[in-house]
Amino acid sequence: MEPKRAIFVSFPLTLKERVSEFVKRIEDQTRKGITWTCTEQIFGGEIMDRNIVKAISEADIILCVINQQFVDSAYCQDEALLSREKNKHTIPVLFEKVDWPLKMSDGTDSPLQRIFANRLYINMYNQEREAEQFQKLIETIKKYTDVREQGSGGQNRENAGDSRDGREGQNDRGNAGDSRDGGEGQNDRGKGGADFAEAFKGMQNTTNVNVSGQGNNVQANFNVTINKF
Question: Where is there biased composition of kind Basic and acidic residues (predicted)?
């Protein structure tokens, strides 16, 4: 039987190769199933693929791998918004230095600010602290998923991974390890967010996730479903 995909990774197309390596490292450390795909490559402007909605609904943890392209992407915004609506334990992982609180390329506030407000992030762009920060992420994943597997259910809100990663040149005010990802401010939506949330709000969770799209579905040898479109 295919293992349950405990982790969903949301990321922009520009980080696909780096995310592939990142996912492999996490899989090796946690032995947790991971679903990752690039929504930007599935449908150009169409409603979010129902398999993506299903994968997010079934995952225990959502990792948002952030650079400026993630912040500007309507698809990534929609995935992050859906993750909050589903009360998922969502962790921002910074692969590049960006403004915090998050801002769009044109300097306007990002819709993601409310999602990631008042929480710490995992800093993967500072090479001197990369190993330390990665270990904090692994500890967070293990602690949270282990509690879930013991039957605490989706209401558990462990403060599992405190990734206090300094304030290098920014006014860093995030909480990636903090699991306070409740439902406040749920009327805000990314581009198209209201449509896909309404369309799929009645979907039921199942055990296995197989994210697929228009193209070649490649199964890697480390229990990670890789979708290349």
Answer: 159-171, 178-192
